[in-house]
Each structure stands twice: as C-alpha cells, then as structure tokens.
UniProtKB/TrEMBL annotation:
<protein>
    <submittedName>
        <fullName>ORF6C domain</fullName>
    </submittedName>
</protein>
<feature type="domain" description="HTH cro/C1-type">
    <location>
        <begin position="10"/>
        <end position="63"/>
    </location>
</feature>
<dbReference type="Pfam" id="PF10552">
    <property type="entry name" value="ORF6C"/>
</dbReference>
<dbReference type="InterPro" id="IPR001387">
    <property type="entry name" value="Cro/C1-type_HTH"/>
</dbReference>
<dbReference type="InterPro" id="IPR018878">
    <property type="entry name" value="ORF6C_dom"/>
</dbReference>
<dbReference type="GO" id="GO:0003677">
    <property type="term" value="F:DNA binding"/>
</dbReference>
<dbReference type="InterPro" id="IPR010982">
    <property type="entry name" value="Lambda_DNA-bd_dom_sf"/>
</dbReference>
Length: 285
C-alpha cells in the first residue's frame, strides 16, 4: 500500500477509537507534529509507534494492509460452542455448517463416533476467507500527488471544523461527503478529470469555515483574506471574471476588492454568492 493509504487507515482507526489527534499523540508518546506527518503520509510509522497504537486498540493489520483483522478469541469460542452443541445433540453422521465473524466454516460430512460412552471424536475443517479489494493503477484515476493534495485539504478542513464548530466533522465524514460529491465509493477511484471538481469542493468547504463569525473574531486579517479567497474560487469556477470586474466598478467604484471597507465587502460577498447560486441553478436545468 502507498503511504497515503496507510495514513488514511490510521486516521480511520484513531477516530473509531474516539481520540483527537492531540490526545492520541500523547497516548503513544509522540509529538503532534510527528503524528501529523504520519497522518498525511509524509513519514513512515515506526514499529515502536505501531506497538503503542496497538495497545490502545488500533487494528495495526488494517492500518498497514486495509484488511480488518479477526478477533481470534471470539472465533475460537464460538466455534467451540458450535462443536459442543453437535456433540451433545447428535449420535450419528452430521454435516456441520456455521458462520463465525462473517467467515464461513464448513464441515466435510464429519462423523461423531461414540467410542466409550464418554469420549467423542470429531474432525472438522475450518476455512476462513477474506476478500481484499485491490485498486490497480489507472491513468484515468487521480495519481499519488493529487491524492496528497486532497488529503492535505481534508486535514485542514477537519482542523478548522474543530476550531469553529461545536460538533466538528471527522475525517471520515469529510471523506464521505467528498466521495458522494464525486460519486465514488473511495477517493482513490476519483477520475483524473474530476480532480479539479474534488479540489474545488474541499476548498469551498474550507472557505465557508473560514468565513464563520468565530474565524472573524479570532483572526480578522485571516477572515478578510479568506473572504477574498472564497470569492475568487467561485468566480473562477463559473468563469465570472468579467461580471466581477464590472460589478466592482459599477457598484463600488473600485478596481479591487482590497479597496472595500468591511460593510462594502459584506455586500460584495452577498452579491457574489447570489450570482453564483443563480448561475449554478441555470447549469443544472
């Protein structure tokens, strides 16, 4: 697997266990920066780190391979219970079929023989089947560099969600939204032609978060810069540059939005959002 896929799996496991990045880093004796590098696919995970993560309940096999590991104790216990039931209820030839942890266990016409009245012999054959979905390289899908760009945007969105929302979205929720937007089951299947669409979706999400009142209160300069960024993303997406220049000139008498005061900027944002919504509606009709 690629580092970026392993990074994605690690995030899934951390969130499944309910840890924030900061808390998880503390539990495995790593700095926030070290964990960030792991979760962005920019550094290899050490054996020491994986061992510590496993102690917290992380499925290390899933992190490294994408395949969920079996709970062997539960499998063995259920299998033993099924066998005991057969021994107690049958005195002749039996065929044993059971489902254990989603994997089929099939008996091969096993025979239970009563030898001394107290001892029973039974022979079974257990088959555990796992299915691994391998996604082969395809020139029509996004490449590793493009995956890394999307992962970076998702990480920024989650960080901003945690900063400004009472109930922030998790990595899993953001990825699910992106996959639904691009109509794929996993981001790895996003078509190369849809990369800009995916990137724009995430950038708009990030822009909306940056435009919240909390962002404005905490960092007015960043809030203003993010207003510029959000406006230009929408203008570029629909090719509204000429309309935008005309609007600045006719409505505000300026050549650049940087010349607007706070009240004028708010009006401009409202106008751009309205124009954007109307144009999007026309395109969908």
């Amino acid at each position: 697997m690629q580092l970026i896929d392993i990074a994605h799996n690690l995030i899934d496991e951390r969130e499944r266990l309910g840890y924030s990045r900061k808390n998880f880093a503390a539990q495995v004796n790593k700095t926030d920066e070290s964990l960030r590098l792991y979760e962005t696919g920019k550094a290899n995970m050490s054996a020491e780190f994986l061992a510590a993560a496993a102690q917290l309940g992380v499925d290390v096999q899933f992190v490294l391979t994408g395949v969920k590991s079996e709970n062997l104790h539960m499998v063995a216990q259920k299998f033993e219970n099924e066998l005991n039931q057969v021994l107690n209820e049958n005195h002749g030839g039996v065929q044993f079929n059971a489902e254990v942890s989603g994997s089929p266990i099939v008996g091969n016409h096993n025979t239970v023989n009563q030898v001394t009245g107290t001892q029973n012999n039974i022979t079974t054959q257990k088959h555990i089947t796992k299915t691994v979905v391998e996604i082969s390289p395809d020139d029509n899908r996004i490449d590793e560099e493009e995956k890394a760009i999307l992962l970076d945007l998702v990480n920024k969105i989650v960080a901003k969600e945690q900063e400004v929302k009472r109930k922030p979205k998790t990595h899993r929720a953001v990825w699910s939204s992106l996959n639904a937007h691009c109509q794929v089951s996993t981001y790895k299947l996003i078509a190369k032609d849809d990369f800009e669409k995916a990137k724009m979706f995430l950038r708009k999400w990030l822009g909306n978060l940056n435009n919240t009142a909390t962002s404005k209160r905490n960092n007015p300069t960043a809030y203003r810069n993010n207003q510029y960024s959000t406006i230009h993303v929408k203008i570029k997406e629909l090719g509204l540059e000429e309309w935008y220049r005309d609007t600045l000139k006719s409505k505000f008498g300026v050549d650049s939005s940087t010349e607007l005061d706070e009240v004028e900027m708010k009006k401009l944002v409202t106008m751009v959002n309205g124009k954007y919504s109307r144009e999007k509606k026309k395109l969908s009709e």
